[in-house]
């Protein structure tokens, strides 16, 4: 398609007219238009245009001076847009569609809401939620920039040149003023720069406004009441208020609630407080839903080495949510009617665009009852692939730690399949291929690549016990049975519903005996295997846990901190610091080791009643252990923060 012509506009415009100035609706969808084809001199003649459809083209940008100031509806879905700042030329815009632009992120949706004051719908959804997020972020960022301005002025000498210190202030504010999740970093930096420049231009007038006693500044999050109801969520993502008598924030000089003193007399160092309680998986968006079971959560991998993530994905019912733990904002929500999600897993891919640029994508895999794996491009907010993996429900899935495109899926059909999801093509579609099929004698519940050799062996906790498979791709055949079964002496063949590596060698497993979590050595167990098809694990220690007979409470580990985490049937979170246990000489004490700390359920209020207890199905923490997320049987996502 070449440049637009007046004749084409009249052909595709409504109502039909021989004058461009009378056209109110214009459909330019599917014409393979490039950005340079949008001629401002021609389009500015559409003085009455109210609705413009530019969907399904190849636009990388919108020209900044199209002259369509009266536009009410703009559709730009399925293009190559990477920036939305040109939308400010449409001050009357009420409806906007940007879906299917893979380089746009959640930050761009927030930018659009900020730039378009009359926006009512964005991507087919009510824009009021996004607008409220923008307003809340603006208040917090304005407060922080103002505080930064005061500190900056205090460091200046009288000889400082005005222009120089103003430029220095803007740079320092963009660098140092931070708030919200990494996924919104682009938006917050953009707003911090704008706020800083406005503050400099006003000569600090905003400081005076903030100091006005009739307009007290917004309180910083760290000093607000714990577990506050955050006003940044969608209407259906109901925040819950915890009972004030059940908040937990321990001090180093006092024992932790329900935490025994260690054998060496030391006190636990962890100080945790409940921060957010969310009902973001409600069926039909009902605030009365306290029955949807939430099953799995995982923190997004950090984008930079040494950094840590505060973005967590949760699944349960027909929804997958991506939540920022600091603010409680539900950044993205994906629904699949008729599905019940059981598992989520993250990977990070390098994608090459049509223009040859490399982009890093965080991709979230989600699976459940229908046996489908959905691949979600989280920052852009859409599903870019579906794998028909199994005919029965998928119990769990995990990505290989060494191959970013290799995905294991475990199903109720008693099979584990290794997939290569590949890298999306120029149409942002995945073409997955099957690499291996692993047969199991019982349903696999948890998957865990062996930490010291993830390309060689895969562990699985199953209904019938703990099994291991050889997953080397350079070895035949492509369909394999279990290589070895691990035996827990006191209860051979029992369900293993919790499994994770604590470090390169130590495995934590749960379910083989009531009331305990077992720590065992992979290397010592494997060394004693020989040619046997079953081998007893070499137990290093046992951890005391709930005596419940209920199953499917999944444990997790925080490898960097040497911690094991598990929920229970009362809503409590059991935390074990095993670093001191691993330093003890063998043989260790036969008695189970007590937990380092137990976080009691804070009893939030929902639907006018106190949720006195609930089952915590899964607990995970980010690598730095600054945030902990617990999923319940009662549609509550509980987020704790380390003080």
What spatial form do the alpha-carbon principal axes imply? globular
Number of helices: 9
Q: Estimate what percentage of residues fall within beta strands.
A: 25-35%
State the distance separating the first and last CA atoms. 59 Å
| Helicity range | 10-25%
The biggest sheet amounts to:
7 strands, mixed
Unreliable sequence segments = 207-236, 242-267
The overall pLDDT, averaged over residues, is 84
Order of neighbouring strands in the sheet with most strands = 1-2-3-4-5-6-7
Structural class: alpha+beta
The total of beta strands comes to 41
Calculate Rg over CA atoms.
28 Å
- Oligomeric state: single chain
Can you give a write-up of this model?
The chain is α+β, with helices and mostly antiparallel strands. The chain has nine helices and 41 strands. The strands form nine sheets. It has a seven-stranded mixed β-sheet with strand order 1-2-3-4-5-6-7. A hairpin with a 2-residue loop joins strand 12 and strand 13 (319-324). Helix 4 (128-154) packs across helix 6 (185-201). The longest helix has 27 residues, at 128-154. It is globular and about 85 Å long. The termini are far apart. The model is unreliable at 207-236 and 242-267 (pLDDT under 50).
